[in-house]
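Our consortium's second objective concerns turning raw sequence data into structural hypotheses that experimental partners can test. To show how far this objective has progressed, the report includes one record in full. It was chosen at random from the queue rather than selected for favorable results. The single chain below, 280 residues long, was entered without modification.
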Amino acid sequence: MLSSVSSALAPKLCKMSSLKFCANLNFMFTESPNLLERYNLAKKAGFQAVEVGFPYIHTVEELVKAKEDAGLKQVLINVFVGDPSKGELGFAAIPGQEASFQSSVTRAVDYAKALDCKLIHVMSGAVQNPTSSHHEAYEKNIRWATKVFEREEIIGLIEPINQRSVPNYYMSSYVAAVDLIKKINSPNLKIMLDVFHLQQLHGNLTSNIESLAAAGLIGHVQVAQVPLRGEPNTGGEIDYSYVFSLLKKINYTGWIGLEYKPSVTTVEGLKWVNEMGFKL
């Protein structure tokens, strides 16, 4: 377990509000190469909200117009991560890149405020053979960002990502992420609980999700099947009927980001929502 804090699951499913799902527009509706058009496609498919990890290929004005024209809520964006073609995946854990990190956070806050978005995922960057200098830079930068988020009434998110999916990604441990969040001790810094990554990094989903919930550390949830990152009802390691019931039992009321790769077309793949008893 990530910590000794855990609450027993109730033996019977208690009556709670339905779970809320938002489309990740970097993974879904890629039938259109135009990110802006995907807002409208998400609305037509029945979504009420979206998340966009990498919005910076467009101006904030373009994104705001696409969001408002579609009548959608913007749940989440990432910080600007630099140039992925050069191996850049954020600057938080990169010594000597403090100015780039602060600029990336400031830019994300500007986008988030214009989009009325309350969650920002702070990506750590890719590091081969991290040293104490990387650890120190990461903590210093996250502390700085958290102060910004407190002023702007935004929740910053740390997402541990498995290194099979993203080689050399620095923040690849829920234990390390939880320890840092508890050390900084701010209501504006929480965990991005991506069940896809949690399963591959630590497994033991019930105890780990319960532990994070009991500590009040879950800021956002994302889902995808393991190992192929398909829809929740596709074959793989995770029983999502159980995971969704667990999220209800811990009374998770936030959005659940669908950060998966559709195995067919996006709309056809959404059949799982009704089949599992949910609505968009």
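The partners drew two points from this record. The chain has a mean pLDDT of 94. The domain at 20-276 is CATH 3.20.20.150 (TIM Barrel). Both points have been shared with the crystallography group to help prioritize constructs.
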